[in-house]
Amino acid sequence: MGKMGLLGICFPEKYGGAGMDYLALAIACEELERGDISLRTVLSVHVALTSCTIYQWGDDKQKEKYFVPQNHGKMIGTTAMTEPSCGSDVANITTRAEKQGSHYIVSGQKTWISLAEIADNFLVLARTGESGYKGLSLFIIERDFPGVTTTSLHHKLGTRAGNTGELFLDKVEVPEDNLLGYEGEGFKICMSALDNGRFTVAAGAVGTIKAALEASVRYSHERKAFGQEIGRFQLIQEHLAHMQAAYDASQLLVYKVAWMKNQGKRNTRETSMAKWFATTHALDAANRAIQIHGAYGYTSDYPVERLWRNVRGACIYEGTNEIQKLIQGSYVMGYRKYKPLRCEMPRYEP
Ligand SMILES: Cc1cc2nc3c(=O)[nH]c(=O)nc-3n(C[C@H](O)[C@H](O)[C@H](O)COP(=O)(O)OP(=O)(O)OC[C@H]3O[C@@H](n4cnc5c(N)ncnc54)[C@H](O)[C@@H]3O)c2cc1C
């Protein structure tokens, strides 16, 4: 993927990127997930959550040291927010970072971290101040820093070709130069990272719908019942019609966000909507695909049960779909509004 330019697909060539835009990132995510979700996950955590965040908030030294090699695929990045007792309620994490001279001493545990055993760099959210979201800061922590260890999580329902694990930080000395943004900006930066991560999850889900549809159409031609292809039955066609509508609508939501991102427009609400809608409909499409395959759909002889298991996770990570609904509700009510950020994501320059 690095050699193909996928790991820096949407970044300018002067930073080692492929010079393409957010629509290209969306199409890459759709096509990768059409194959397997584990490959799309690499773009989500490496490109969207980690590299986009350093691009948006990092200083020149951080960009040169981490962003450029990440775009070439020479370094792999991931982002660690979740802790054993804290996922959705990320403002209450307990990993601590204490300032000592020109370093921070970071201790804590992160879990459910994609690519934990593979990544070279971790964006780690830690508490530097008061309780609540204002006391959080974000650090770039290298795997080689003494005190960093990782383990893998096993027996996941899906995403089995992708690594997910835990990150342990035992009094890790992190240079102050590795603070991303300012002290106290960590929560805000993580939320901006999710605007990019969720976009890729939504785009990937479009690929799952496509894969479910393709497998179902193929099977509906092959399988015969009552003397004809099952695709001739209107109730099978109803499933296929729902899947096609889900594909078209989800892809349009994703492309709308890509268009907004290319112009440097804020897109938190639109991205959250795309993620909620596309993953929910991808799960439904995979479920319908299993039904169309009958008993064979309930085995690993056909790809559709894997699609269902994989995309089940996408309804949970990068904000559960309950959290996405809360986001929609609060924008609709006017409780949330777009406010300018200190560092806006740069618009795409052809
Ligand atoms: C395969 C996989 C990969 C992951 N990769 C990463 C990664 O790379 N980095 C990372 O930091 N994290 C990662 N995660 C973690 C993921 O982001 C969290 O699991 C997710 O945010 C939910 O947190 P939780 O599991 O602690 O659930 P909880 O927050 O404990 O939620 C439990 C349930 O309560 C609901 N709930 C919680 N709060 C509310 C509320 N206010 N209103 C209504 N319902 C609510 C939730 O929707 C959910 O149904 C990954 C998870 C998976 C499964």
Number of strands: 10
Please summarize the sheet with the most strands.
4 strands, mixed
CATH-level-2 architecture of the largest domain: Up-down Bundle
CATH homologous superfamily label of the largest domain: Butyryl-CoA Dehydrogenase, subunit A, domain 3
Rg over CA atoms, rounded to whole Å, is 21 Å
Structural class: alpha+beta
Distance between the termini: 22 Å
Helix content: 40-55%
| Spatial strand order of the main sheet | 1-4-5-8
Q: In the residues, how many domains can be counted?
A: 3
- Which class of the largest domain in CATH terms? Mainly Alpha
- Name the average pLDDT: 98
Treating each run of at least 4 consecutive H or I residues as one helix, how many helices?
A: 8
H and E order: HHHEEEEEEEEHEEHHHH
Shape: globular
3D architecture notes:
There is one protein chain. The chain is an alpha+beta fold and 350 residues long. The protein has three domains: 6-76, Orthogonal Bundle (Butyryl-Coa Dehydrogenase, subunit A, domain 1), CATH 1.10.540.10; 78-184, Butyryl-CoA Dehydrogenase, subunit A, domain 2 (Beta Barrel), CATH 2.40.110.10; 188-332, Butyryl-CoA Dehydrogenase, subunit A, domain 3 (Up-down Bundle), CATH 1.20.140.10. Helices cover 46% and strands 17% of the residues. The protein contains eight helices and ten strands. It has helices spanning 22-35, 37-57, 60-72, 186-222, 234-262, 268-292, 304-314, 321-332, and strands spanning 77-80, 96-100, 103-114, 121-127, 136-142, 148-152, 164-175, 179-180, 224-225, 228-229. It has a four-stranded mixed β-sheet. The longest helix has 37 residues, at 186-222. The radius of gyration is 21 Å and the shape is globular. The protein starts with 21 loop residues before the first helix and ends in an 18-residue tail after the last helix. The model has no long low-confidence stretch (mean pLDDT 98). Flavin-adenine dinucleotide binds at residues 45, 78-82, 87-89, 112-114, 159, 164, 313, 316-320, 322-323, 326.
